[in-house]
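Q: What would this chain look like folded?
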Amino acid sequence: MKNKVFGSRRTKGDIVFDTLNYIILALIVVITLYPFLNTLAISFNDSIDAVRGGIYLWPRKFTLFNYKNILSQSAIYHATFISVLRAFIGCIFNVFASLVVAYAISKKEFVLRGFYSRIFIFSMYFSGGLIPSYFLIKGLGLTNNFLVYILPGIVSAWNIMVVRSYIDGLPKSIIESASMDGASEIRIIFSIIFPLSLPVLATITLFVAVGQWNSWFDTMLYCSSKQSLSTLQFELQKVLQSSASLQTQANMAASKIPGAASNTVTPASVRATMTVIAVVPILLVYPYLQKYFVTGLTLGGVKG
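A: My prediction, written as structure tokens:
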């Protein structure tokens, strides 16, 4: 007697549904990747030729001059070191502070947990403003000081609330068992809470790293007069500003000699090259944190 296998045959409706799904997903992939691929193509295309437009996924006139022009800036390499250093140190301090504070306000026996939670939530919606913040930083003596990249960002209300939500979902019996065995709060944090919270900690690490890496406005406000503290993003911003004056000359050159290559840069080519240079380090780090990133965002909102 032959066994009947149910569900082995696909109906026309199933085939149409799957086909539409694949088409929609393919369109989403194209829409998502096209801006980056277009930027990559422009960065590798001749600057004068790029002014004419019509570049989509592949450079029309391939050149490395845009990258040579930006990477020839001597300040770029030291600025890259400063950006990497501030991202690394900033992540360590921010993750540590977020874990410790989140654990404290997650404990029900902490009588001020509600008060501090409201303070953190209030600070997420209201801030002191740019001018008071500048005078505060200046009054603390942090201008032209590397610590201005680290200290103001140690405590992040958003990160604290995300980690606290994750800790609230952990089994309370593990923490209670450790306390009954005589473990101190420090031992509980680093031996139990820290290993169990790796997914959400990796998530906020990525948040902080991207924020620190992309930041340039604080450099302009507080450290613009000290070249040794300049960051990569700030140096790239200066390169973009210096190339803005070349737009008129580039337009004229493109109209007079449409087929000629050039040894100059335009704001469009500089912007595209800057984007590629700035995003490469994050692209290298993200694959290692992706699984934690997805898990952290998913489990961080689940209550136990």
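The radius of gyration is 26 Å.
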